[in-house]
Design a protein that fits this description.
There is one protein chain. This protein is of the alpha+beta class and 321 residues long. It contains 6 helices and 14 strands. The chain folds into 3 domains: 116 residues, no CATH class; 145 residues, Immunoglobulin-like (Sandwich); 36 residues, no CATH class. The strands form 4 sheets. A 4-stranded antiparallel sheet has the order 4-11-8-9. It has a 4-stranded antiparallel sheet with strand order 5-6-7-10, with no helix packed on it. Strands 1-2-3 form a 3-stranded antiparallel sheet. It starts with a helix and ends with a strand.
Length: 321
């Protein structure tokens, strides 16, 4: 990740309070379905100027890096006020959006027996960190909304029948304080693949880490097949929890510090150019040919004038080319 290192160096020169870090993230749902799935390289961007966190894939990062180089070159070649740079022109800025806090997997097998099963499930992040827990229940019920008193002895007894159930998302406990703004839960119906989501919580300045959700979603399957029963017996429902991730907001570096640092950088670049220029104007070396003893010839370069090492025998001992 040499490009990432160069970008971090440029950030230091420009005094940007923005940190970039390469991370590996896994799609846990995809990994459950395919053990050979590979993690993705993601760039985590911590924007302390705005107090936000966002993530870029490698394609987005490379595009932004090209824009960053252009911005850095402008600092070296002309005056550019970073404090008045428009957000849409700033390659390091991105619009805040919800990030994936983690996954929660609910075992569906109790549905085969028409039983509810309230469960506290760990919220697992893409890199394996537990970010609190969520309480979920899936409740099969009759047309009147009542839970069943009698349950089947074998799941296959339900084949050909209809099934009505509700998905209850009850609460979240222990969410990270910096990762719970506008928190919500979503899942995809395992029957018709429709995405359902709760309303958002912590939409004000409060950052409650324990959130009472208490929302439910009704579902109905008109005709249960053998495939449906097999799915319930073997699979898990995947719930995803999203929120805005935050870091401490420090604001932008004062203009005076930026200009001072850029001036130092320009002086260093100018000095480096002058050093290269001096090296390029040094006299070329020479080829010293000893006619009496060719084995002692010294290959210096193609210069045509050099001091003679033996002043007494100048014409006798050497020829200069």
């Amino acid at each position: 990740m040499n490009i990432l290192k160069k970008n971090i160096k440029n950030n230091k020169v420009l005094q940007r309070r923005i940190n970039l870090e390469a991370t590996l993230q896994k799609d846990l749902k995809e990994q459950l379905e395919d053990e050979n799935s590979t993690p993705n390289i993601i760039i985590r961007v911590e924007n302390y100027e705005e107090g936000t966190v966002y993530y870029w894939n490698t394609e987005t990062f490379h595009n932004r890096y090209d824009l960053m180089k252009d911005l850095f070159n402008k600092y070296n070649d002309e005056e550019l006020d970073i404090l008045n740079l428009k957000q849409e022109d700033d390659p390091l800025w991105d619009e805040p959006k919800p990030n994936l806090l983690g996954y929660a997997f609910y075992k569906l097998e109790p549905i085969c027996y028409l039983m509810s099963n309230a469960n506290d499930i760990g919220i697992i992040s893409s890199n394996g960190i537990i970010n609190g827990e969520i309480t979920i229940d899936i409740v099969p019920h009759d047309e009147s909304g009542n839970e069943y008193d009698e349950v089947p002895e074998q799941p296959n007894e339900l084949i050909g029948q209809n099934l009505t159930y509700k998905v209850c998302i009850i609460r979240i406990r222990g969410a990270p304080k910096n990762f719970c703004k506008n928190i919500y839960v979503e899942y995809q119906s395992f029957y018709d693949k429709t995405v359902h989501k709760t309303k958002e919580f912590n939409t004000d300045d409060k950052r409650e880490t324990d959130i009472e959700i208490n929302e439910s979603f009704e579902h109905s399957i008109d005709y249960l097949t053998k495939d449906d029963i097999d799915y319930f017996e073997k699979e898990n429902a995947c719930f995803k929890i999203y929120a805005y991730e935050e870091v401490e907001k420090k604001g932008k570096t004062p203009k005076e510090e930026i200009l001072k640092n850029v001036k130092i950088q320009k002086e260093e670049i100018q000095k480096s150019k002058e050093d290269v220029k001096i090296q390029n104007t040094q006299p070329e070396e020479f080829i010293l040919i000893n006619k009496d003893n060719p084995a002692n010839n010294i290959n210096r370069s193609k210069s045509i004038a050099v001091p003679n090492q033996n002043k007494k025998n100048k014409d006798k001992d050497c020829s200069i080319f």
